[in-house]
Design brief:
heterodimer, A: mainly alpha, 4 helices, B: mainly alpha, 9 helices, 0% strand
């Protein structure tokens, strides 16, 4: 995996969107499986920053995680 | 009674918006507590599953939450258990410290960070300064990324998924540079 491909994979993992199966189980991002353990830690950091940016852009200051879960209730 | 306890009491009545307000208060400490599992599991999965289980627990009439920040302490335990389930499911136990694999340790309650509206204002200003496709891609992800895959978001903007991600990476670098210019490095994001 090239450096650019790794950067894009980490960016893909930063999304709050996760697929679910028919039983409702949430699945890891497909890109997450391709990352080495060190890159997964960087993806975690990027998730954290992304959630703050989402809060900043939301009138109720709800992150993508909060909105994703709310949509499932 | 802490603000988290008050929010959880309202959430227990079963209204989703009240539960969302509680989630917004506990999301940061929960996510922070899961950092030690980040090499072995997709933390976003663990966090969303934890919050869904808390929605069920909140509405159980017989369940008692006692003491300061009881709902957060309970959620920290649920998060650790979900993380351990995911570690086992992924077969990634070797990537987690042995102490963290033990399931019977009472989790410490991290301090709840104070809301930083200065940071939010700076983020909004820096995003406003972006132009063209990077701006469109980043905004699409930040506003709608919780309900649509990157592939679908990219299609909305008539981009390929790769181009969409490349534009977000460019936008993110520009925002980081802008924030650094304001003396707000992204590492200053509360955890």
């Amino acid at each position: 995996m090239s450096r650019d491909e790794r950067t894009e994979s980490i960016e893909a993992v930063a999304s709050a969107y996760r697929q679910r199966d028919a039983q409702g189980r949430i699945h890891p991002s497909a890109a997450w499986w391709d990352l080495a353990p060190e890159a997964r830690e960087r993806a975690f950091d990027l998730q954290t920053i992304t959630r703050e940016m989402e809060r900043a852009m939301d009138a109720r200051e709800w992150s993508g995680t909060v909105r994703a879960v709310l949509a499932r209730l | 009674m802490s603000c988290i306890d008050e929010a959880f009491e309202l959430a227990r009545a079963g209204r989703p918006p009240h539960f969302a307000a509680w989630m917004a208060l506990v999301e940061r400490p929960l996510r922070s507590s899961l950092r030690r599992f980040a090499r072995a599991v997709d933390v976003e999965v663990v966090l969303q599953e934890t919050l869904l289980r808390m929605w069920i627990a909140a509405r159980e009439t017989g369940r008692v939450f006692e003491g300061e920040n009881a709902s957060l302490r309970f959620a920290l335990r649920v998060a650790r258990n979900v993380a351990l389930e995911e570690v086992r499911r992924c077969g990634h136990g070797r990537l987690v410290a042995l102490d963290d694999l033990a399931g019977d340790i009472e989790p410490a309650v991290p301090p709840v960070p104070i809301e930083d509206h200065g940071l939010f204002h700076a983020i909004r200003e820096c995003i406003e300064r972006l132009g063209g496709k990077p701006r469109r891609a980043l905004l699409e992800r930040l506003v709608n990324g919780h309900e649509s895959s990157d592939r679908d978001l990219a299609r909305t903007l008539s981009m390929t998924t790769n181009t969409f991600l490349q534009n977000i990476v460019r936008a993110r670098r520009a925002v980081a540079k802008c924030l650094a210019g304001k003396g707000v490095p992204l590492q200053a994001v509360p955890r």
